[in-house]
Amino acid sequence: MFWTALSFLGGALSLYLGAEGLVRGASRVARALQINPMVIGITVVGFGTSLPEVVVSGVASFEKRPSVALGNILGSNIANIGLILGLSAALAALPAPRRLVKREIAFLLAATAVFYILSWRGRFDRIDAILLLAGLVWFTFSVIRWTLRDSPVTAEARREAFREYRKRFDLYRDLGLMLGGFSGLVLGGHLFVLAVTGLARATSISEMALSATIVAVGGSLPELATSLVASRSQRNELLLGNLVGSNVFNILGAMGVAALVRPVTLAASPLSLEFIAFLLFTAALPLVMWRGERITRIEGTWLLAGYCFFLLLLFAY
């Protein structure tokens, strides 16, 4: 019990410090180079905070525990929208640029559809892994291309800004902050998952339910910590970009790595509660953003209530 409590405290501290360093460093780099913070959120921050999910799914696949790999991915995406976005919006309404719905979230919906269609085969093999990872590379380069195309800043002005930024040595400081933030988030997520899993072993919770809730939420704590820090700092584009990028990375990156390590035989039907909730929460994301240029506190509360209802159904079932 002592080591479990120590893991909780150490994980919470590591998550907070990691999120603070990552958000601060990424925001400074984006501001200095005149890059839209949304891009940094989707790529650098979103992908970085998904590293715990990739590690958990990859290790689970290697150890022949497919239910953990699948439950971690589904549960993490559900928690990102229902718990993290819902909680952030319930605390304070979030601006939601419509261009995010048209492009980045459209890509998330497409990735979700491909993932769900492939799941009907009951197995993700290495060919599927290559397809998913190729989609992730395509998404990353598409986001960068969209940003450069839409930005009013010329390439020469951005290069000049970069030269001035590098002369002051601020680049190395902020890259160090981001690297330290990544390390803190991964360590914190790992410690927290260990602590929660240690407590849950004494219960009769199924491995799939455990992975979709406790392990997934533990792996999503970096996103939660980063989102709350970004919300507190009024960096809402960074927050939304983080969640969208993280969900895309979970689908394409985490399952891609898991299936590349070892083909993953799915432990749940595509008609299971976890899969249906995964689809519903993903579909809810563009709906709450399309009605206006913001996610209201009421909509955030509904997302959070939906996540609580999912947990109730999961454990009651």
Helical segment count: 13
- Helix coverage percent: over 70%
Oligomeric organization of the protein chains: single chain
Tally of individual domains = 1
The fraction of residues assigned to DSSP E strands is under 5%
CATH C-level category: Mainly Alpha
Biggest sheet overview: 2 strands, antiparallel
Strand order of the largest sheet: 1-4
Low-confidence stretches: none
Please describe what this structure looks like:
The chain has 317 residues and is an all-alpha fold. It has one domain (39-149, 202-316): A middle domain of Talin 1 (Up-down Bundle). It contains 13 helices and 4 strands. The chain has helices at residues 2-32, 37-49, 51-62, 66-91, 98-102, 104-119, 126-150, 155-167, 170-200, 207-232, 236-261, 273-290, 297-316; strands at 94-95, 123-124, 264-265, 294-295. The strands form 2 sheets. The protein has a two-stranded antiparallel sheet. It has a two-stranded antiparallel ribbon with strand order 2-3. Helix 1 (2-32) packs across helix 10 (207-232). The chain is globular, with a radius of gyration of 19 Å. The model has no long low-confidence stretch (mean pLDDT 77).
Essential attributes:
two-stranded antiparallel ribbon; 317 residues; 4 strands; two-stranded antiparallel sheet; mainly alpha; A middle domain of Talin 1
